[in-house]
């Protein structure tokens, strides 16, 4: 007998008034039978409240018993033809297995996952057959975040539906030739199929939460009717260890996202072993979600357990269920019925007596709730009808269900992808598929004729729900009008004499102009993470309001100010608090709204650049996968612009990170006119042309005057390089100076020093995007390699610089790697010197930081003089004179190493 049960019995023995206890219990039983469990719950809550107010110590617990949340007599039964649905699931299990095993017999390194879908098949089948709507005129369609490792099962279903061909299944994970299926849900690779990427793990539940909130946002603002729509996210119990999985559940509860359902597939295993071998993951997750304000539905035991639980009048079975840890449960399902009888029911004599008339096979057929269609249907029905809370369904299942000895419930299940002939035959037999023994070595795909009852049922169920899922819209049906560039004329003109602004202020003025635009204004989605005042955007609070489903239930402390903090049910700003991952998830929801909602939205997520791509890089990559469209604004960008903040707070590498995302279009503008031209180009590409790109623009909080746009500069700004000023001097020596962002102004100052101090002419180039210059150069280089007999293409940067003279010197506020991207495309006979801010940040004034990182005007001059000396145009002594003249400590440590 276990210690826990001993303790329970001891408590009963030590009861000072057994008769009174039984009277209370009988009274409660009577309430449950006559008035229902809701009334019993209410009375219990009132009694607990009274006891606590009178000083009784009643420990709090957010857990319930380790049984199904929905009692056996209250769950709604699945109305479908379960015999046919089981046959269809068997076909899908087989085809998913065949797809992966075939691929790995051809190429053992392709990989693939079978066990996740094997444990999830019933949960997905109930949803596809009875709950999930495709987009129609009356229903915007449900949004599905499919557990990434279950992708083969989704393909197997689509194959039966006729949406995928056998040839495509044969090319699982063989995508290069254009016939294959992606390893995981990837909208980038299958743009008309997958709605969302859900790998890397943890991103699915996080993005789903903010997607659900964004549907509320659209509805509240009258942009789209999302009232009937649900967001369903499937994830594994091991995946819930990812901080992103759990990080936003409090927001979902607080916002009462009743349109959100997360299904956690609790098969108790991850890659290496049990998720909580010494504990109970379902109980742990129940406590977390319930405490965060969620409706928690546990689906632990299949229908076969109902009779046993009904007999459990003393609660012994429930106690054993509770005390048994997950490592034991995993072990049971890796063995057989005799083992379960001895090691589970054998924990108490009365349990052995309870199952004495059951055979070992009967005991083995006691299923877990995640494999019981009726239990799953009942849970989904409760989730669908939730009125004021998000719902999490914790469904217990078996990893590798159907694999038998080849991997069912074993630690190796996750990696099972190469079944032998015996295992394949056993799987055929278990799921009763009409495949001849002689055909088994070929592992054929199985699909019944279109006129069979199974296939007719499959199509009828999806027809009743509006069509097939998953499916993805590639273009929005609506067309919004982007204003002409002249709409931003104030930003295109030189700043008035004596007036200075930052590029952040220029951006805010562009954004304000867009908000006033009749066509685009309502579709602008400003997203903040508690830094609005830093960027001078607090004026938007009163102007357009902060979205809140309850409005503003208090009078703001700054109500007497012009720019007070205003929350509104129809507010336009999404204020995410100190939460970069949340801000990015909201941005992704808005940036893909053209697909998910058939509504073009234009999100602007503004944040400290240091806490952008570095912190949410995985989400930015997911945005690329999702073909997101919108603007990311990295404020106070650069290693030396955010002075005073220090080592971890200064960004010298976000542009390097941005360069790794192929459909991210990054810019580091210096002047207001560049900001306006770039943003207008982004609107043209993303709104007018509906191109699947997104823009990353870095902004500075440093004030200075701006020269304004000159005719013909637009193309160079967009391509990434244009000549800002050409020296009129006709001196013996000339250099070309390039820069971007705030350091371009140091480059301009360096040009003046070169002329005044050393008689050297310097042309100045603004390079808003070294990354775009590099991509253009790489594209030209590739084309030339593959077309050797045709006229060579010249990269844009080469075209710009080929007719200039003198060494080329670059200085930016980013790592040298940023500008080094284009070295290969510099004219071959030219010197190319790059200055950058490699190393950790420092806290000091901007001037001192630029001196420390050796990117200021004096170092630009030194680099130019040294380059001329290296070419033999100047004596090295001139460089030494300049070092002395500008007071540069030639022996100071390299900033990279200190």
TrEMBL record:
Occurrences of domain Transketolase-like C-terminal (ranges)? 720-855
Q: Does the keyword Oxidoreductase apply?
A: yes
Cofactor(s) in the UniProt record: thiamine diphosphate
Q: Which residues form the signal peptide?
A: none
- Where's the Pyruvate dehydrogenase E1 component middle domain? 495-707
Describe the function of this protein: Component of the pyruvate dehydrogenase (PDH) complex, that catalyzes the overall conversion of pyruvate to acetyl-CoA and CO(2).
Q: Where is the Transketolase N-terminal domain?
A: 118-301, 368-432
Gene Ontology molecular function: pyruvate dehydrogenase (acetyl-transferring) activity
Q: Which reaction does it catalyse?
A: N(6)-[(R)-lipoyl]-L-lysyl-[protein] + pyruvate + H(+) = N(6)-[(R)-S(8)-acetyldihydrolipoyl]-L-lysyl-[protein] + CO2
What is the top EC class of this enzyme, as a single word?
A: oxidoreductase
**What organism is this sequence from?**
Undibacterium rivi
Key words, A-Z: Oxidoreductase, Pyruvate, Thiamine pyrophosphate
Please identify the protein, giving its name as recorded. Answer: Pyruvate dehydrogenase E1 component
Pfam families reported in the protein's UniProt record: PDH_E1_M, Transketolase_C_1, Transketolase_N
Q: What stretches pass through the bilayer? A: none
What EC number(s) has UniProt assigned to this enzyme?
A: 1.2.4.1
